[in-house]
Amino acid sequence: MSPTAHADVRRVDWRFLLPDPDLGRVAYPAPRQPELLAALREVSTVVERAPATELEGFDVVVLTGTRHEMAEAIEHAPAGAWIVAEAGGRAAVGLAARLRRRGFEDVAAHWMWPDVQRCREIVPMRSQALRHALDRRDPGAALRLRVRLARTLARTPLFALVVDHAVVVARVPS
Q1: Superkingdom of this entry's organism (predicted)?
Q2: Can you state the percent helix, strand and coil of the chain, rounding each to 5?
Q3: Long-range pairs for 41-46 at CB < 8 Å and ≥24 separation?
Q4: Which class would CATH give 3-126+160-171?
């Protein structure tokens, strides 16, 4: 595997949040990011740029669009499929709450640090693990105040406001 391909595959490290990191049949409705599409092709049996209204038969539906585009795809996701939605922290927490209310299973929002392209850590948004991830960072004097603020916010739902990159995973009810 070339170094470029390896970098592309890291783009979808969130796949390890699912029961099987081999994603099987993947639907990726619009809008599409070329680097994400390339990475999905490396780790999936099939990747189709399917319209949000034609998702039957897919194992995983990957979403990166607006709230409206995500809602349309979620509405048409097949029973038993996994939803993987990339969004900012506030949007991710809101999406996770909506999915729980709608009866989706295994719903979780995770912080992708430092971002989805160069992700080095995937941390549950509301957990002891989040506080631990922040506590072991010492960014140096220039950013120390920012980390202290993040540690304080991590004790509250407000942490989502400062997270730029997050991913929500959920299983469509059968």
Answers
A1: Bacteria
A2: 40, 20, 40
A3: 42/5, 42/8, 42/9, 42/12, 43/9, 43/12, 43/15
A4: alpha beta
Short-list 89, 108, 86, CA closest to 97: 108
What is each CA distance from 167 to 91, 128, 136, in whole angstroms?
A: 10, 18, 22
Q: At what angle do helices 128-135 and 144-153 cross, to 10 degrees?
A: 170
For residue 51 the two structure tokens come to 């319209």
Contact 91, 111 (CB under 8 A): no
CA 126 to the chain's CA centroid? 14
CA angle 32, 83, 37 (to 5 degrees): 25
- pLDDT tens per residue, range 61-106: 999 988 999 999 999 999 999 999 999 888 898 999 999 999 999 9
Kindly provide the residue ranges of all beta strands, DSSP E only, lying in the chain, ordered along the sequence: 25-27, 46-48, 60-63, 82-87, 105-113, 121-124, 166-171
Domain ranges of the chain: 3-126+160-171
Helix (H) or strand (E) segment spanning residue 4: helix 3-10
State pTM to two decimals.
0.83
Closest Cα to residue 74, out of 46, 111, 107?
107
Q: Which two tokens stand for residue 129?
A: 């693990």
Indicate whether 27 pLDDT > 90.
Answer: yes
